[in-house]
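hey so u asked for the seq, here:
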Amino acid sequence: MDYTQQNLIFKLKKSLRYLRLYGLSRTRVKIKGQYHTKKIYDELPTPLAVDNHPGTVGLIGCGNYAYSNIAYYLSRNFGNVIRACMDSDANRAASLYENYNLAYYTTDADDIFSDDNIDTIYIASNHASHAEYAIAALERNKHVHIEKPHVVHPDQLDRLIQAMTSSSGRVLSVGYNRPHSKIGKLIKKHLHDQDGAMMLNWFVAGHELEPNHWYFHENEGGRVLGNLCHWIDFCYQMVDDERRYPIVVNPTRSEKSDCDIAITYTFGDGSIAAITFSAKGHTFEGVREFFSAHRGNVLISMSDFKNLVVEIVDKKIRVNPMFRDHGHETTLCSSYKLSQSISEGEATDCSADYVQEIGELFLATRTALETSTTISLARSNR
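ran it, structure tokens below
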């Protein structure tokens, strides 16, 4: 739904709801982000030659997420650290450049890769290009943060792993942020305090997308790799590493293979995770997420990363942060801290094993749903 085209009453209601969910600053940048993606210049601004710009970050992809999350959180926490941005749409690149006081903008990614002042690259372009840009950045000796998904094809996964293992001292992190949110970390802690197999369940109500949306273009990965990857990753990270494999992927679908679907995973220790993804119409508060889990003596329920209830026998713990937090700020800022060696902090850099395993699980899920077949994954040789 294009919120900018709705009537004034709708816009006011939306703004007031977001103020309650996210606070003034986040609501403001979310609204600005909607108009940023539509901005068309009569005459594109001429980038200023700023040789002494303090930024060391290059941003590839200047859509709404880059504008209202990556640029917003990096600027808020570290100041003017983004030096340059690139997008195939010059208007979007110029808009982000102007609003965040960058040194320059470009439509050529090689300008970013060849800039010796840039040591860290955040990638938020179209999905099929994520791995390609990440590989190029690693080969140019840059640190890399990739937004989801990190790959959309097995060949990309192989080449990304090769680039990671060939690069020396470079940090690569990926934007699967939910386990790094405050609530996500609490869920993991309480589950890991217990023993035995787990039952994990997600119900997700996502946005309906038009049939010609770019998510559905050939080679872009569809909604399994574009959306479902978040909840697949969350379940994968909840299961103890040494107890994960083999993983059996069992799909349930009707006409569509990547929306209005259910998928279950049976892990090596007997844990079962179920994800139901519904995309019918539009939800007023954005994507809605409902999670429940049971392990040992702990029973957990969570809604929208805003309300968490943990029951441990006779104890009941309620966590209700003031604002909804999906972990974006923690993940994005941690990547910057790691690349700049500011502190070890909340380490979210990714091992080659993790990048490979979660990539294989995403790709197997898509194949299982497309072919309506059950797939069993063994751990790759480490």
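The chain has ten helices and 15 strands. The chain has two domains: 3-174, 178-328+350-377.
lmk if thats what u needed
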